[in-house]
Amino acid sequence: MPSSRPVLHAERLSKKVTSGERTLTILHELSLSVAAGESVAILGKSGAGKSTLLGLLAGLDTPSDGELRLFGQPLSRLDEDGRAALRAGRVGFVFQNFQLLPTLSALENVLLPLELSPRAGEDQMAKSWLAKVGLEERIDHLPKQLSGGEQQRVAIARAFVTDPELVFADEPTGNLDADTGAQIIDLLFTLNREAGTTLILVTHDHALARRCDRCLQLDQGRLMPFASSDFNAAGGGQ
Amino acid sequence: MSDIPWRLAARSLKRDLRSADVRALFVALVLAVAASTMIAFFLDRLERGLERQAGQMLGGDLVLEQRSPFSDALRTTLEEAGFTLSDQVGLVSMISLGDRFQPASLKAVDDVYPHYGVSRVDLGQGTEQIAFGPSAGEAWADPRLAELIEIELGDRVQVGQTELTITGIVEREADQSGGFGNFNPRLMLNTADLEATGLVQDGSRVEFELLAAGPPQALDQVQELLGELRREGVEVRDVRVDRPQLGNALQRADSYLGLAGLAAVLLAGVAVAMSARRYVERHLDTAALLRCFGASQQQLVILFSIQLIGLALIASFIGALLGLAGQAVLLRLLASFFPMTLPPPGVTPLWLGILTALAVLVGFAGPTLLRIKQVSALKVLRRELDPMPPAAWLVVAVAAIVFGGLLWLYSGSLPLAIALLLGGAVLLGALWGVSALLLNAVLHGIKKITGTGEWSQALRLGARQLARRRQAGVGQLLAFSVTFFAMAMIVLVRGDLLSTWQAQLPDDTPNYFAINIQPSERDAFEQAVAPRVDTQSTLYPMVRGRITAINEQSPRDVVPEDARGDGSLRRELNLTWQAELPEGNQVVAGEWFSSETPMNEPQGWLGAVDATPQAEIVPISVEEGLARRLGLALNDTMTFSVGGDELTTRITSLRSLNWDSFKPNFFVIFPPGVLEQFGHSYITAFHLSDEEQGLIRQLVSDFPGVSLLNVDAILGQVRDVLAQVTRAIELVLLLVLLAGISVLYAALTASQPVRAHESGLLRVFGAGNRMISRIQGAEYALLGFASGLMGAVLAEVATAALYIYWLDLTPRLHITLWLTLPLGGALLIGVIGHALSRGLRRQAPAASLGLLGEA
């Protein structure tokens, strides 16, 4: 169950880009608070700025205005390296295009985040996570020898292997067929629940969003509770 | 996050070794190290071999010569410095056997003789190689002396007041310290018998030589002492300075090898720069992902640095092994040239190799690698977010500085390195501009092709593809130009070097010198020789004269301190007269005797001989090396003592000449009309073929007073060395060409993904395999053509500069280069590029279109 301490707190976040003399506002004064253990879906159409928002929330990019606190730390006071250090071991990612390194085996891909901050028994940890996603037989395979669904399983194992507090998922089923997508979603939510991780998920897939504790919609640069009678917004969204 | 990700680095490196760009990077580094270590090893040993050979010719590493015995104090000092000493005494004396008399050049040697090498002596059982001299009571004669007074082994010859038994006929002495100065036949004896001969007395013309053999450190240690000795008038011959024979040719070979090594390093550098670009592009996604997982910029830099340094270390190890093997091969080629086994190669060249690999990597790949550091984590979400490639000037500047450092390291001369570097920088800047213009011009020219055939269409499309990637195109053009330039330069210089050597020592190079031809014998000798020899030099008249004053002062007071013991002041010089400048001589200052010189007037310059104050001063021409040693300049006066008369002369010209030409050469030449009145003889050199050797016996019996010196052995040795060095040069050339090909490989693999993408798109739009293949072929060929053209310009300019400033050759235009390089370039790049892209053309469009997007 979600606790009350916010893992992530955004206050009036804006993102503008300048192209020539024109300034384009992609995100407009968004505020958002995510509690530890909570799962939040951000829904939006293609081009709505979902990925931009995810980048901002994960500290991969800097906002034009507003303040963001990750694990209680204001990101505006940190430089790029400081933000990276804050993420290390505490944030996991699952991407639409898997982002596995083609020259590393499944096991080595999972080991990647662990090797940045080495700890004892990392091989064992990586193997056990690969077993959890059902790939214990394929740990030495290279990404190109795995199917799309298998690649995303590796990516999920990689996201959870550091025992992170927060996992970001960017369209995790976007490149998968419906059946495989459904299996991946099951896996993601099961592992998330077991690990008690906070999950922020960006998608255009309502079925996927529905499984989250809370659902928000990004439309024309603004974030609002998802107006659907099928499930209730659990408050907190704008 | 301060931990160093060793495991990740090692693992990535292992995996990376499978990708084409890393392999290209690796091959380039291996070649750079192999070339530099091989050449460094080889030059190191060649240097030692030359020193040994020079030592053998001189008779020791250090030879001192003076008119009186050397003091014990000096001997002690030299021995303490680490030298082994050997004494020699030289003098000319009449020897006799029965009623036959002959002046001979005596050489007394001690029991240490010789320091180096062996003599070829017939001790009664045929000629053998031995490393000792005659024992006390014995003497060895040379074949000429034996012939002149009909000596048989066992005869007792009268030498001064004693008799010695002839126990050997010495065909070749281990050392050649006498040189051509000794026109009298040789008799070798033991120093123990000198006293008994009674020939060494106060006032007699005796040369005492102290020959010292020792390590280079010993020579270093006594340099100050040598300076003092020179000032005291002792003639000092130092193995490092006085290298008889071969000097020029080997100096050039040495320079050439150094140049080739640098060319290979430069080529490898270009290959590294090209592969580094692709390497970095391929790793941007990895870097972004690692940033996402929390890696700091510093960690990324460390991670990729570890990988690349690991790569460099492995490459230097393999390269150094190859270099070691290569130098062993080089050494085998030169085996017969080295008189004895050399010490094993040192470790310095190994360090040099590793340093070279790291320097090339840092210099040529460093700025490109820093791009990885700047990658944004956001790239994982937005692929297009690639950091800007480093500015071209930065890449070139860093590479230039590192290459300059290597130049300094290799040449040992900072000014030379800076000059080459500045020159190179200006050249590169100009090149960049010219490349862009040239590319534009070629592309513009192609647009005018209006044909509708498949080839014209392919050419137009190929040109358009090239135009679209203009920036990358200019970069590639530059890389290919530098590659062609370096390869062409090494080929050109090799050709010119070899043909210069061949021209210098053609097949009919004189192999005999005839000395001491009396004026009365001159015509008869000429008639006897002319019909049977292949070539013959002019018959030069020769008069012996001693320098007695320079600018009316004692020579010892005027010349630089170090030259006080110079041989030219201590011995008589061979003077000649000539109306025309001798063949192979060049006037480098002043003017040759004018035609108004009253050559044949009875009085002529003889006025000078009267030494009356009104007498005009005789103009003379002096060899520039002698002038430099003695500190002489144009218009200085020199007084010679010739046959008891004093002749005052003025230097009106300085000449350069080739001492390795195997022709008579003279330090001082007079105009005709001055020296004729003195007793003189003639000298000439000619080439006698093997079939005509019988002429020698006839000459010896018809002209018993004429000395005939056979220089076949020395000539053969010089030819041998040149042939072997030539083979060494070809091996190095091969290495440079390999390095060149590694550049092409690197450059072409670097551009493959882009080309794959393009061919994928063309395929989607309906282009057939044949069309795509032609378009790519045309694009590569155009690039090759333009690069070849530019390479030709560069090679021509650089070669001319090298010839003038470094190799001392005459520059010339290489017309064929201007044809072969552009056409060959088009063909080479066209074919290689086309073949390398074959795999890409076979890919399904979906795969090639996806290739760009993968990490």
Automatic annotation (TrEMBL), chain A:
CDD domains: ABC_MJ0796_LolCDE_FtsE (cd03255). GO terms for molecular function: ATP binding; ATP hydrolysis activity; transmembrane transporter activity. Residues 8-236 form the ABC transporter domain. InterPro entries: AAA+_ATPase (IPR003593), ABC_transporter-like_ATP-bd (IPR003439), ABC_transporter-like_CS (IPR017871), MacB-like_ATP-bd (IPR017911), P-loop_NTPase (IPR027417). Keywords: ATP-binding, Nucleotide-binding, Transport. It holds the Pfam family ABC_tran. GO terms for cellular component: transmembrane transporter complex. Belongs to the ABC transporter superfamily. Macrolide exporter (TC 3.A.1.122) family. This is ABC transporter ATP-binding protein. It comes from Vreelandella populi.
TrEMBL record, chain B:
Coiled coil: none annotated. One of its GO terms (cellular component) is plasma membrane. It is found in: Cell membrane. InterPro entries: ABC3_permease_C, MacB_PCD, Membrane_comp_ABC_pdt. The chain crosses the membrane at residues 21-43, 256-280, 300-330, 350-370, 391-410, 416-439, 474-493, 728-748, 780-805, 817-836. Residues 28-226 form the MacB-like periplasmic core domain. It is a multi-pass membrane protein. The keyword Transmembrane helix applies. Keywords: Cell membrane, Membrane, Transmembrane, Transmembrane helix. Its main location: membrane. Residues 260-370, 732-840 form the ABC3 transporter permease C-terminal domain. It comes from the Bacteria. PANTHER family: INNER MEMBRANE PROTEIN (PTHR30287:SF1), MEMBRANE COMPONENT OF PREDICTED ABC SUPERFAMILY METABOLITE UPTAKE TRANSPORTER (PTHR30287). This is FtsX-like permease family protein.
